[in-house]
């Protein structure tokens, strides 16, 4: 592949940081645009601008054109419209980062494929992503917008825990306190390391077969939630953790902010068929499974105590949930 000029809107988040590194490793020229609050990965050009403001975005880009614009920052249709107002016509490919949570919940069949209907009555975030996709599909059909849609599921790096309590769960395990797992813990959950995701993503850059298409990008590693929590306990040095299984609906009553993500995503078994992206990027594979991922995350967080944030309010809600189910 020839050297590409790639613009990342974002570029410092969990997924986008890995994608920037991968694009640089492939020899591409990479520009990262954000508000300047986070440092772009080494080797990337950094541009400061407000992606929510068309004038600011236009001024920051200063008339430059790019082979690819990768948008990690658009979450509602108005965000997409603002970006397209500036970059459409000056890029050969616009890649929008959607979400696999947009697939119907509960899924009627597994594995989920790109033809699975998009419908999520539980989570506004997912409905907004669907609306963004609808806008892009219409633009491709009506005026030939060279767009590609990417749907990641649970993608993590060494800084991000997958559990509902985040660091609260690790702190509770280490203190010998019970930890809440939603449902019975046996549903399957696909977890993908950002470095693996980035391989598939980089293979789609300026790929003519990707234009007008949507791709699920996940690994093929789908352990149960019980296994995920056990691997985290082992990595945290806890040999006999106490797990309390609580229905997702009950958790949502005690902690309403957790409800949409649970009922609209995590409480369902989510296994994906990624043969479509593998046809275009045959080198894409799962190289980091979560037994290793858990060790990396805990090691990183242990080395950075400032990231070990316990939410006292959520901790109290976990205690209340556990007391409630034990009374019953």
Automatic annotation (TrEMBL):
<dbReference type="InterPro" id="IPR001509">
    <property type="entry name" value="Epimerase_deHydtase"/>
</dbReference>
<protein>
    <submittedName>
        <fullName>NAD-dependent epimerase/dehydratase family protein</fullName>
    </submittedName>
</protein>
<comment type="similarity">
    <text>Belongs to the NAD(P)-dependent epimerase/dehydratase family.</text>
</comment>
<dbReference type="InterPro" id="IPR036291">
    <property type="entry name" value="NAD(P)-bd_dom_sf"/>
</dbReference>
<feature type="domain" description="NAD-dependent epimerase/dehydratase">
    <location>
        <begin position="6"/>
        <end position="215"/>
    </location>
</feature>
<dbReference type="Pfam" id="PF01370">
    <property type="entry name" value="Epimerase"/>
</dbReference>
